[in-house]
From TrEMBL:
Gene3D superfamilies (alphabetical): P-loop containing nucleotide triphosphate hydrolases
Predominant subcellular localization, coarse grouping: cytoplasm
Span of domain Phosphoribulokinase/uridine kinase: 31-156
Name under which the protein is recorded: Phosphoribulokinase/uridine kinase domain-containing protein
Similarity-based family: Belongs to the GLYK kinase family.
Keyword line: ATP-binding, Cytoplasm, Kinase, Nucleotide-binding, Nucleus, Transferase
Length: 297
């Protein structure tokens, strides 16, 4: 068994009895959120958990990624061009680059779905427009014809919660003073960081707040600089397979786009997501992506 497989099973085994108990109590789909730092392997976690729950525990499980809820290419360009000075929106990724109406409608339809007819799962094609991406045509979206027992919803900022404006300003000032782990918020104007926070607030209200999840897995590390190492390793492996990919400098710039939100919002998530304890499992990884510790919050 690989280290990654062992990590996944160790975390999932903690939640399995509770997932099965919830399944016996309610016919509603169980929403399991997964968030993880860039390079931590969260997408692999999500797909493997789908396999384990479906094949070993007879729980019909599907997955959807936050990435599949992006706006259309035209809307992403409009978002980017709205404020050319806002570097956080030069590419897709931040809260504000996803289609909140599409997300809200999908999860509403999911909860109401009885298994009659088809339910389409939104899909985004990252290969379109030379990597800028666009929403896949609706006829190409994956469909299900059976009511799922578990839905794994994964994404890099899933589980992040907005902060009071004063807290955002305080963290921004700490970054300007060089007192955060990486200090990336200092690369951006306060107004631009606050815009992300406002967008995140709407996300949480509509589809991504604690009230929308039953259980949660948070893949974390004690040293945020590990993220750069992990993402570089991923890119180097992809280059070995495909023969092309980003340069090391491009990878660092890519991670820099996500790091401000890690530095802003991870502290709150690390304290837990739910008021009642025991529904969130936090997995803290070492630089080598081995488990340092597992916590129930």
């Amino acid at each position: 068994m690989t280290t990654l497989e062992s990590n996944i099973r160790r975390a999932l085994d903690i939640l399995l009895p509770k997932i099965k108990e919830r399944h016996q109590q309610s016919s509603a789909p169980i929403i399991l959120g997964i968030t993880g730092l860039q390079g931590s392997g969260k997408s692999t976690w999500a797909s493997r958990i789908v396999d384990i729950l479906s094949s070993e525990h007879q729980l019909y499980t599907i997955t959807i990624s936050l990435d599949d809820l992006y706006k259309t290419h035209d809307d992403l360009i409009a978002q980017r061009d709205k404020d050319p000075e806002n570097k956080l929106y030069r590419t897709r990724g931040q809260p504000g680059t996803h289609d909140e109406q599409l997300a809200g409608t999908f999860f509403k339809d999911l909860k109401a779905y009885t298994g009659e007819g088809e339910l389409k799962i939104p899909s985004f094609d990252k290969s379109k427009f030379k990597g800028e991406g666009d929403r896949a045509p609706e006829p190409d979206w994956p469909t299900i014809t059976k009511k799922p027992d578990v839905v794994v919803f994964e994404g890099w900022c899933v589980g992040f919660q907005p902060l009071p404006a004063a807290s955002i300003e305080e963290k921004h000032n700490l970054a300007l003073s060089g007192k955060l782990p990486v200090n990336t918020p200092a690369q951006h104007e306060l107004a631009h960081v606050l815009e992300v926070n406002e967008n995140l607030k709407r996300y949480c209200d509509v589809f991504m707040g604690p009230q929308h999840f039953d259980f949660f897995i948070h893949i974390d590390t004690d040293n945020l600089r590990n993220v750069y190492t992990w993402r570089l390793q991923q890119e180097h492996k992809m280059i070995e397979v495909k023969g092309t990919g980003m340069t090391d400098d491009q990878v660092r710039a890519f991670v820099d786009g996500y790091m401000p939100s890690y530095e802003m919002y991870l502290d709150k998530l690390r304290d837990g997501l739910f008021e009642d304890k025991g529904r969130l499992v936090k997995v803290v990884l070492t630089k080598e992506r081995e488990i340092e510790r597992v916590e129930q919050l």
